[in-house]
Amino acid sequence: MNHSPRDSCEFQICDIWQQALGVAEVGVHDDFFEVGGHSLLAIEVVVQIRRRFGVDITAGELLEANTIAKLAEIVRRGHRETPASPLIRLRGGDPDLAPVYGLPPVSGSTVVYVRLMQALGRNRPFWALQSVGLLPGEQPLTSAEEVAADFIVRARAVHPDGKPWHLLGYSMGGVYAYEVAKQLRAAGETVGLVGLLDTRPTIEAGADNDFALQALVERALKIEVDLDMVRSLDPEARAELLLKEAVAAGTLPADFDSDRLLRMVDMYQINLDAGSAYDPSGYPGDVTLYRVLDRAVESVALPYDLDWTARVGRLEIRDVPGHHYSMIEPGNVETLAALVDAALPD
Fold it and tell me: What pLDDT is attached to residue 248?
C-alpha cells in the first residue's frame, strides 16, 4: 500500500513533520507520536501549519488528527466545521474494547497521557479531556463537580452502549476522575477502573501561593528565572518574559504567542483552586491507587494510602517505579501501563 504524499497539501505537511522529527521519511498514515513526536514538537508542527497554510489548527486537533492524511483534510477545509472539543480522541482502537478516559491534571493538558496510551496493550480506545479554558473563547470551569458533569455530557456522545466506564487521572486529574466516578455511579452507570495516578484527595488552599507559577516555570517551560521578580510583573509583562526565556531555552517555539501562555498560567491556578475547594467525600466503589515508589520529590511525609482508604469502598494500591513526575516517562510508564492493562477486564 502506498503511504507517500498524494497531493501538494500532504507533501507540505510531510515536510513539516520530517523537519520537526528529524527523520528522512514518514508516511501519510503514520501516527505522529509513534514516530517520535511529543508535546513540544506538536506545538512546533502546529505553528508551521499555521504559518504555511494560514489555517488555525490547535495542538489538541493534532492529538486527534494525528496523521498527515487527517491533518490534510483539516487544512483543505480551511476552517473548523465545528468548535474544537476539549474531549480528544488519542486513539480510536478496537471498538469491541471499552475506552479509557484520562482526566486533566493541573496543567489542563492531555499530552501527559500520550506515552501511557502508547504503552497500553490490546489497541484500547483512549480519550483524554483538556481543561475547558485553554482555548480562546472558552469559559473555564471552576469546580471539580462542574468539570466532571461537563465531561460526562461530552463523553456520553462517544461512549459505546453497555460498556463500563474506565477512568484515569494523573496527579490532580485523579480528583476529577474520582468525581466523575461518583456522578456516573449515582446515575446508575457501570463504573470499571477508577485509576488514580499518584493522586492525593485534598489540596491545601494557600499552601504555596507560587505553586502554579513555579510548576509552569520549572516543569513545563524548564527555565531558570527569579520567581520573586516574575511574580512582581503584571500578567502581560510576565508572559512576555517567560515566553522570551522559554524560546531561548528551546522549550517553546519562536511563534508561540503570549496569550496562550497566559491561559496556561491561569489554568494551573484554576485547577489548583478547584482541587483545594473539593470535598472528597466517600465513593462506595472500588478505586486503584498507582503509588510511586520514589517519594523524594514530596515536601511532606504522606501515609502509604495517601489518605484514600477511608474515602472509598475498597482501595487497591499498586506500586509503580519512579517519582511523581517520572512515573509517566519512558522506562517507568511501561510498568504503569502493564498494571493498568491488568486491571481492565474487557
Answer: 84
Helix axes 258-277, 235-249, angle to 10 degrees: 110
Instruction: Determine the residue type at 320.
Output: V
Domain region containing 284: 87-202+278-343
The enclosing domain of 15 has a CATH number of 1.10.1200.10
Q: What is the pLDDT of residues 129-168, one digit of tens each?
A: 989 988 777 899 999 999 999 999 999 999 999 999 999 9
| 196 and 216, same domain (yes or no) | no
Domain count, the chain: 3
Helices (H), the chain: 8-21, 39-53, 59-64, 68-77, 114-119, 144-156, 173-186, 211-215, 227-232, 235-249, 258-277, 333-343
Sheet holding 87-91, edge to edge: 87-91, 126-129, 100-103, 165-170, 191-197, 283-292, 312-320
- One domain for residues 193 and 55: no
Single pTM value for the model = 0.78
